[in-house]
Amino acid sequence: MNAVDRFEEGSPSWPVTRYLDKGGSALQDIPSALDDRQTLAALYAAMVRTRTFDQKAVSLQRTGRLGTYASSLGQEAVSVGIGAAMDPADVLLPAFRDHGAMLWRGVTMTEILQYWSGDERGCDYAGPREDFPVAIPVASQAPHAVGVAMAFQLRGEKRAALCILGDGATSKGDFYESINACGVWNLPAVFVINNNRWAISEPVAMQTAAETLAQKAVAAGIAGVRVDGNDVVAVRHVVGRALEEARSGRPQLVEALTYRLGDHTTADDARRYRDDAEVSARWQEEPVLRLRNYLVARDWWSKADEEALIRQVREDVDGAVEAYLALPPQPPAAMFDHLYAVLPPSLAAQRALLEDGDG
Amino acid sequence: MAEVTLVEAVAMALGRAMDEDPTVLVLGEDVGRDGGVFRATEGLLDRFGPARVRDTPLAEGLIAGMCVGLGAQGFRPVAEIQFMGFVYPALDQIVNHASRLRNRTRGRLSCPMVMRMPMGTGIKAPEHHSESVESMFAHIPGLRVVIPSTPSRAYGLLLAAIRDPDPVIFLEPTRLYRAVREEVADDGAAAELDCCYVMREGSDLTLVTWGAMTRETLAAADALAEEGIEAEVIDVATLKPLDEETILDSVGRTGRCVIVHEAALTAGFGGEIAARLAEKALLSLAAPVRRVAGFDTVMPLPRLEDAYLPGIDRIVAAGRETVRFQ
Known about the structure:
heterodimer, A: alpha/beta, Rossmann fold, 2 domains, six-stranded parallel β-sheet, two-stranded antiparallel sheet, 12 helices, 8 strands, about 40% helix, B: alpha/beta, seven-stranded mixed β-sheet
């Protein structure tokens, strides 16, 4: 067993919740709240949408029309499952690979492209106004979730903060400090570890000697559970239940087991540090085909449905790309616009240098 | 009107701010029942309860990061870092998030927090309790850096900092906490941010300083007056954004300037002021700008701290030489 596989199923005391096996066959009854065509087809459509968008973003980067981009290939179920489980009133605090959750919550493809093109306006979401922008410094979003959850608690609101972190983030003090504080104060927060096995070139076994990441909840005195992160039904169900618990003052840690099928970012070449064979094997577990197989077996998904979906998603992505490419750049002096609520007069001279430059 | 110390003025301002605005929260280590290790939050727990006056786990990164989340949600957190020497784990949150949340979301989210912390030497405290690293914060775009020098200024500037919509680093000089008493009216009147305060007028020399060093600098000005040298003393009060007008105006009249700070000389904030004078007041200068500052040494433990601190004598000597320079 190699280092990565140690996390495969973990110990019997930390079972992995799973409804669909790798091939898409049901291992147990689907939770009744999810067991209808409409719900499952929406989850499937969102994963296809996320993957199609993702592929387009990578190709835009490869052709010089987008900056460095973090692909979510293979992790669509974690991200979409989270987005679908959240109430609109909850607040999402994502890492930087959570496009599926962001899209589900109403961040637009155009905004995501704008951000990764290097334009701050891509974080001024027209949809979820209270959601945090992506966090680039690893785990630094975790204490923000503590503050957001505390705000909900202070106002007596039945809302939850949902923070997504990678497996590498569990090595950081920010992560532990945050789950620990949520335990102390019974805050309405859920932390989902997107355990995609790799932090750039470091396998998860290099992050910790612990048998699971979920068990890190024990030291914080909060609940920890594991879920198959490539089974969107399981993610949707487990995260939904965790959010309900959190809104009642019981913070939760969820470890979602998935796999990063792509490079870390478009600036990375994963072949430098992992075998093609490992990646090929993981393709057998990927989440999109898994759910489609299940839908088809239930007679809930036809070839015509698939073609219509692909057509619609491509149209949406192409439209978003067109809108993104047509965005006028910010004027240079815009870098001063939101530095402070009101620009101090002492900075006016610096700003003027750029305004003059505008001609 | 009550005669209060600087630390009592801080507590008074915190109580006032919490009273007038239910979104103001106080959080930090030992700020609740203990009232803060310096008693800056004394009485607040009884008045406002544990929801708004919150002892936190001992984790400065968490404290600062929570403020970002609370601020984005419309609260006005006022966090206490127990000593400046313990702020470093919070820097990631201050630099990477608090200072730039407004900018990176184009104004959608903001972080109206105040991070208070005691700074500086002079109270014979253990290792790591005496540093002055204000220039580190002054280098970070998006922050305000404020340092009071008197009880009334502490009251007014802290109220202004709490009402300000952007993050403010509020540095409280420990050796001034109980050094003097002053009449301070608890009237809710804020003092102006982003401006220097002229503490003493004079036409021969400009002495620029802030925080605890205002005391030694004012004493030095008195000593210089006995020699017939009238020094103007400027308390910078807000290091960032810097009110350079007041300093340039004074130096334009005196032609001579000495900058005094407790922090280490190299890359201290005095260097920034000297650079502004070189850029904008060179032709007014009749003498080189001097800096009287802490040494570029590790802050010594208490038995040598008096030797580290720039004393009145060093300021007087620098002032005298600057005025005599031909």
